[in-house]
Write a structure and sequence with these properties.
Chain lengths: 103, 228
Amino acid sequence: MTGETETPKAGRGLPPSRQAIDDKLRAIIADVLGLDCDRVEEFDGETGLFGHLPELDSMAVAGLLTEMEDRLDIIIEDDDVDGEMLETYGALLAFAEMKAVEG
Amino acid sequence: MRAVTAWLAPDHGGKSREEAALVFDRGRDYRLLLIPPLFDEANKFRRQLAEIMYRLDLSGIDCILPDLPGTNESLFKQDDLTLPMLRAAVESACEHFRVTHWFSVRNGALFAPGHLPGWRYAPIAGKNSVRSLLRARSLASQESGTFETMTELQDIAANQGITAAGWSLGSEMYTSLSSKPLPGHDFAIDIDHETVGGTPLWLRAEPDEDPEQADALAAVLAIGILGQ
């Protein structure tokens, strides 16, 4: 016992948990694409995004990436953006997790 | 009573120019200036601002939504616009309409008046706004096969100004937006979007309104203004 108060997890400088990133990413997709939250909740790793969701055009991609930067506190570079990263929900989530760990 | 009126905004060389304003003005004691965001978010959020004004009017608060130079229907050349000019225009509007309070949306916080109490709804730094514009242009260039990178576009914007996502930015405007973090404000209260709930309207593909969100924002403002 050192008498120190338990530091909340977020205060330790650790990256956010996978669950937290997953929750935020689903909320971002629902907000940016104007999709119903229940529908986005049903997304799994294989759910197709770019080319599968008519709402996700290039302007929406710009909005999606900017919101991901703001809400996940990451920076997305040009080189990061390719078709593969936006192909499925699983790929986008893996990308977001990687960036959050880097950040 | 909803009306469109004219006011005098500062122009180049110490002159002034006439701009429009949407007002609910019955000459009441409490008078709120609404400061819209720049760029695309202004279009996405304008209907919602009108909804908020309508509610505040019913609560006994006069509301003024000015066309700032280079925004909405203003004929001021967008490329010539700078942040200090926007600040000066907001100050002029405060004086002209005898404003007692203000409410800014998103990057509208960057040119809010310094001396009056107000609220900043989901404020963001200028760099987030310009990054989004440049990214839209970069993605569009990839689709058209010209491949302009963000770094290239940032250089162009800083040196000669740029047109991105349909908006013209002079180099001075770009530089001042991209370099400044969100400023603090001694007399402002920030309203997070989480307080309001629902989908942020500035993210939607088309302009829309949301009665519940308008109710929530109008309630925060009315309680803040009338409760003082």
